[in-house]
Design brief:
about 270 residues; alpha+beta; about 45% helix; eight-stranded antiparallel β-sheet; 8 strands
Length: about 270
């Protein structure tokens, strides 16, 4: 009875996932057989992405359950087998899920002080005071747009010793919470002024993003959501980019660092 129950759950999950893979990667076929337009397909795609963490966890539970049933049926007594399926396998799959965004980890952009704390951690790592850390470029990317997490921060900081810009990335590769060196971006990083953390007023950023989400609701067509945030270090503006269903930036909402809405730009 247990086998039938587990097989039933596994089959249902597999069918659901295969159906949504068909929707995600075959828009023409989906349009032909289901009559969905590109926006309906995008809504279903984003819904699937929202549900994917739950199915991933269900897959993990079913897989470990099957391994337990197999070990019990075959009367396996080796401790290494039971240790692997009960400890190592779940930890490994959870770690893979976190790194691959199947299990979104970390705060959203709208969480108060999330970015501030992360940049403060960088200042501590560099052994410099926050007020002395000169930011020449700051970009924040949303890696799982429907869920608005996790976020990746790439920042260029003026090196006090070399007077050059060093670029850092959070999280670093194969890490969930550490800073690491990143390849310099091709963005223009020469600031018209020395921009420090207090100048960009990061505390206003969550409210800016909530305002962008409200404005996004008034758009005529469905858009996936905020995909990135850029700091204009010359004019001290925040540029919030909204992605369309094709994965391209459709609109850019510009705000002052004080949180005042300025203009919406079309790409």
């Amino acid at each position: 009875m247990k086998k039938i129950f587990i097989i039933g759950i596994f089959s249902s999950v597999t069918f659901f996932i295969l159906f949504y893979i068909f929707v995600l990667f075959n828009p023409p076929a989906t349009n032909q057989f289901l009559g969905w337009n590109i926006y309906q397909i995008a809504i279903q795609r984003d819904t699937f992405i929202m549900l994917l963490p739950y199915f991933y966890i269900l897959f993990l539970v079913v897989l470990v359950g099957c391994c337990f049933l197999f070990g019990k049926e075959k009367q396996i007594t080796k401790k290494i087998y039971w240790f692997t399926i009960s400890i190592i396998l779940p930890i490994l799959l959870i770690y893979i899920g976190l790194l691959s965004d199947y299990l979104p980890y970390g705060p959203t952009l709208t969480k108060k002080s999330a970015v501030t704390k992360t940049l403060k951690q960088l200042a501590q790592n560099l052994d410099i005071k926050e007020k002395d850390m000169i930011i020449t470029d700051l970009n924040i990317y949303v890696q799982n747009i429907p869920r608005q997490r996790p976020i990746k921060i790439i920042v260029s900081v003026r090196n006090v010793k070399t007077k050059q810009d060093d670029t850092y990335q959070h999280p670093a590769k194969l890490s969930l919470s550490r800073w690491g060196l990143a390849a310099p971006y091709n963005h223009e990083t020469s600031s018209a002024r020395d921009v420090r953390m207090k100048d960009i007023k990061l505390g206003n950023l969550p409210e800016i993003l909530r305002d962008t989400k409200e404005r996004q609701k008034s758009l005529a067509r469905y858009h996936s959501g905020i995909c990135s945030v850029e700091l204009d270090t010359r004019n001290l503006y925040w540029r919030v980019n909204v992605q369309n269903v094709s994965g391209e930036i459709a609109y850019t909402y510009v705000y002052s660092v004080d949180g005042e809405y300025i203009i919406r730009l079309s790409s």
